[in-house]
């Protein structure tokens, strides 16, 4: 049972879902100016993006099972056969439907956000991911919108601080996604006949764009603390680590000759993005 649960968590990339939930909480705290009230809205606000994300990743692995085999993706449940493609497809459909129903129970704006991103999740997995930059921008938007969603669920207008933090999520997410398209170039071209960004502009040009975005994240990460959040010792240390880590990745993907550099960069960038998110979480609650 626990093994199956572990495989399910791999399928839906549970770590991404948790990060989205934290981002929603940060948006709530900033929009409300304090801790959000406990209740159904508090719970529903987490479930909508988490279910949407889980459904999207399950659909991604269903659509890309052959591509993942060609790219020799290790630890993918559908590739390894530990979960069935039928389960992935049915779970994906159920997750999208449930997230939409829960959003409807919150308010109309939450419903609009959920419907928009669920529709684009399907479009992304079917076609948008094969196009240069468009698919990358969609994924980047999914890393930005949870901060805004935290305000929306309480019927509040997102503050400028929230929009800046959302921009941070977009920039970091776009950089990471471009790196991932470089990592998956061969399989995407063979299995999906994709025309992703590195196939159009070249591998090194794509990595240079990603590097520039990682560099841009650093000054942008300081803006929320100018007249907005307060940077303490703990949040400052985490933010410093995140900035240093993303700066290093921006350099690493340009200078490294290792064939695994894009894969390593994609994996480690998620860690630094998480540390940056934790810095924002601590700062939003006054630590």
Walk me through this protein's architecture.
This protein is mostly helical. The protein has one domain (2-284): Orthogonal Bundle (Tetracycline Repressor, domain 2), CATH 1.10.357.140. 79% of the residues lie in helices and 0% in strands. It has 14 helices and no strands. It has helices at 2-12, 14-32, 40-63, 65-70, 77-80, 85-106, 108-126, 134-152, 160-183, 185-192, 197-201, 203-222, 233-255, 261-284. Helix 6 runs antiparallel to helix 7 and helix 8 packs antiparallel against helix 9 (160-183). It is globular.
Rounded to an integer, what's the Rg over CA atoms?
19 Å
CATH class: Mainly Alpha
Largest sheet: none
Structural class: mainly alpha
Considering DSSP H and I runs of 4 or more, what fraction of the residues is helical?
over 70%
What's the number of helices? Answer: 14
- CATH domain topology: Tetracycline Repressor, domain 2
What kind of oligomer do you see?
Answer: single chain
Low-confidence stretches: none
Gross morphology is globular
Alpha carbon gap, first and last residue = 39 Å
The fraction of residues in strands falls at: under 5%
Order of helices and strands: HHHHHHHHHHHHHH
